[in-house]
Fold:
Amino acid sequence: MNRPFAIFMLATACLCGPALGFVHVKRDPPVVEHKTFDPANPPPEMPHLNPGEAAVTSSEFHIQAKSEYEVVSRNPGADGVTAVVSVHGITISTQLRVIVYVPVGAGEKLKAHEEGHLKLAEKIYDDYAIVAARAAAAQVDAHRFTGEGPDWQAAAQNAVAQPIRDMGQRYMDMTSKRSSDINDTYDLFTAHGANDKPVDVAMAEALAKYEKDHPTTRPAKRGNGH
Structure:
């Protein structure tokens, strides 16, 4: 069984003057751990096992984003200030952490099934982290946004905060949610590892089904992370 998690952080930096827009993406290598546990006393940090499940793989997709922007207008009002900002650059860092939990004494079939979950998460991350981050950032970079606050600094930060959060959610939809959906299909095709379907066949079928069911969700590939 696969348990996906989506985590993102944001930061903003105000520019004093105009600058050229840019999107820079750094994809960190996946961090993978393998852990064994006693089914009678599982570790508290391990995701809960549902009835019929013997093992679990957790995959955490992370994104950290920093935007750079220029304040193009400040308008005082009765309750504070309204600011309009123009975003001139976004720097993104992506991470994937996967932990495979199998019970002590697990058989090779169960281990192979959980490795399938790991490989699927890694494939989604390798194939989509950079292109998904760039596609999501394109909805923010070189755009203007309006925010309100008690002073112009707070108003400017409020203007860009929600677009950056929306950008993070778009990234998660294209990576973490994609991985979750594909891994759920993989579990369906393998009966959670109980049937005799080969792992590599089930993985390929799960990936193919997702692409067939979601033909418009594949972002176009673009160069490297810069």
